[in-house]
């Protein structure tokens, strides 16, 4: 399997990347980033691309892939709806549309979040935007499209969150996250599980488009 990954400099994306590089069924990984990752690996190809609203310049490099793991995302805190929609919706659909044409049998996985509003009509701005993104990605007609909705995520393998507030939580309150996991084991996942679940969804398929934390745990096995 050959996979494309976005957001590999973030916590979830890096977790997915590391699992892909380790997995025997993954033969090649193309990472699309704004800045170099600083990782060298025989399976890894890296493309530096600045404009995530337009991927036409990369068209010749995006053909022949079996899966795309879209892990790029930002927090909605402090953002207005137009700016959040541009980064969340426009960037995902810009890549999805072009690779859907080039790779009709591809699996497309999108990192969304618990609480996403599939009706697109709720009060929460981020949930509405994520909901529309999910709905339109599914509507593109990929062979398989999975919307990953992890809740609390524990970083593994030395991964750090780029969001300062989240990293502060992991640094000082990881015990609390582990306590939540103890009492509600299906509500918390880790970056390794997310990575393995993404790979397995592409290799084996899954009966649901929406992948909740419980589904991530099942897929990771």
Automatic annotation (TrEMBL):
SUPFAM superfamilies: NAD(P)-binding Rossmann-fold domains. InterPro entries: Epimerase_deHydtase, NAD(P)-bd_dom_sf. It is found in: Membrane. Residues 4-110 form the NAD-dependent epimerase/dehydratase domain. One of its GO terms (cellular component) is membrane. Pfam families: Epimerase (PF01370). Its main location: membrane. It comes from the Bacteria. PANTHER family: NAD(P)-BINDING DOMAIN-CONTAINING PROTEIN, OXIDOREDUCTASE HTATIP2. This is NAD-dependent epimerase/dehydratase family protein. The lineage of its organism: Bacteria, Pseudomonadati, Bacteroidota, Bacteroidia, Marinilabiliales.
């Amino acid at each position: 399997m050959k996979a494309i990954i976005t957001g590999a400099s973030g916590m979830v994306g890096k977790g997915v990347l590391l699992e892909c590089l380790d997995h025997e069924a993954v033969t090649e990984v193309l990472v699309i980033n704004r800045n170099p990752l600083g990782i060298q690996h025989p399976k890894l190809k890296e493309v530096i691309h600045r404009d995530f609203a337009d991927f036409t310049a990369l068209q010749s490099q995006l053909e022949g892939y079996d899966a795309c793991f879209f892990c790029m995302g930002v927090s909605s805190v402090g953002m207005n709806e137009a700016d959040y929609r541009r980064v969340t919706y426009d960037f995902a659909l810009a890549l999805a549309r072009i690779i859907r044409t080039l790779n009709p049998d591809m699996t497309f996985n999108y990192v969304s979040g618990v609480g996403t509003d599939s009706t697109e009509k709720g009060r929460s701005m981020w949930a509405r935007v994520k909901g529309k993104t999910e709905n339109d990605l599914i509507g593109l007609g990929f062979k398989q499209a999975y919307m990953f909705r992890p809740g609390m995520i524990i970083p593994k393998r030395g991964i750090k969150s780029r969001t300062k507030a989240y990293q502060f939580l992991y640094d000082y309150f990881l015990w609390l996250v582990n306590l939540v996991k103890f009492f509600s084991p299906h509500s918390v996942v880790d970056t390794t599980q997310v990575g393995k679940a993404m790979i397995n969804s592409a290799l084996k398929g899954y009966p649901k488009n929406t992948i909740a934390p419980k589904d991530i745990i099942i897929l990771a096995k």
